[in-house]
Amino acid sequence: MSYLIVTVATIALIYAVAAAALNVRWGWAGEFDFFVYALLAVGAYTYAVVVLPPAPPNDTGLTYILGLRQSPLVGALVAVAVCSGISLVIGAIALRSLRQVFFGITTFAAVLILSAVITQQTSLFNGFTGVFGVNQPFNSVLHLDPTAYNIFFLVLCAVIVAAVYFLLQRVFWSPYGLALRAIREDEVAAAAFGHDPYMARLKAYVLGGALAGLSGALLVAYIGAFNPQAWSPIETVLLFAAIIIGGTGNMKGAVLGSLIVFGLILEGTQFLPPIPALPNAEAALRAIAVGLVMLAFLRWRPQGVLPEPHYRDAPRERDDPLAKLGRLVGLKRGAQ
Questions:
Q1: In the Cβ-directed half-sphere of 241, how many Cα atoms lie within 13 Å?
Q2: What's the rounded Cα separation, in Å, for the pair 283 and 230?
């Protein structure tokens, strides 16, 4: 198995966790959110400063907070907790009265504020330079060579993606998942059945934040460094493209879309013939390719490769009011 294939597959699986986070917020709850990738960055920074040793003296030019020298598991848990807390604060404010484009504008403004704070306040995460030197998780015990370790980390990411998938599938088909999607379709009708739209969306927002923090921890653990250039606006667009192509609201679609966007499209453009007059055209060609594929799906298959699954009757659920509402939601989306 070549090094390139392993690396591409690992990155795609890491971004699949971030796509799952966006899918919970946008695909399930219907909140057009730009803050997911910023939370991935927060998770990456948090993991780094928890597992790194204390910053060296200031004459080295490297400055960051904490430096707790903790284990990778502690770093990942702290990253998840921090991103969940930030999501709780932002969601509690923005979800109270904002919807759709207004909510999206608010989350985009939050991204700009966060970016300004992190880049200008160098004592947090070393400003524009960022943090680096993050050790490979668990390799101090395993002592694997680079090739074997890359395969190990690929398997680790695959296990985490599988665990996230099965967890979210349980949530998807739970009464809460049915209620959340019913709120997305018709907030007034769902409220009439006794469900609180605000609390349901807030729970989804926190769950998505936790997954984004986990993906950030995995990303910085794999590449060993992170800086503001790694979370430009194009990265958020790529996550939306993965959801649109794979299938909005479908967890299998989130994984498949990540493999298509971050694996096939982004890496496939590297094999295009060079343009003599434009030596730096590769990045532009990547963005163009993603944009064209996304536009094609929006025009001819807006439900994505794998459409969102709908609720199906079960005998024990025939008299359940929430089940009836779930059936109505499924019929409504199926007619679109």
A1: 27
A2: 14
Q: Are 208 and 268 in contact (CB under 8 A)?
A: no
Alpha-carbon gap, residue 107 to 91, rounded angstroms: 9
Q: What is the pLDDT of residues 72-99, one digit of tens each?
A: 999 999 999 999 999 999 888 888 877 7
How far apart CA 34 and CA 254 sit, in angstroms, is: 16
Cβ pair 202, 81 in contact under 8 A:
no
The tens digit of pLDDT for each residue in 200-219 reads 999 999 999 999 999 999 99
Alpha-carbon Rg for the chain, nearest whole angstrom, is: 21
What tokens appear for 297 in the block? 């799906």
Q: Please enumerate in sequence order all residues whose Cβ is within 8 A of that of 44, keeping only pairs 6 or more positions apart, or say none.
A: 79, 216, 217, 219, 220, 226, 230
- Residue 280 tokens read as 């730096």
Contact residues for 261 (Cβ-Cβ < 8 A; gap 6+): 15, 238, 241, 242, 245, 290
- Here the tokens at position 182 are 């019913």
pTM above 0.85, yes or no: yes
Residue 70 contacts residue 50 (beta carbons within 8 Å): yes
Among candidates 20, 3, 317, which has minimal Cα distance to 150?
A: 3
- Token pair, residue 253, equals 């679609």
How many other C-beta atoms can be found within 10 angstroms of the C-beta atom of residue 255? 26
Q: How far apart are CA 246 and CA 305, in angstroms?
A: 5
> Cα separation of 66 and 122, whole Å?
13
Place of tokens 């390799």: 139
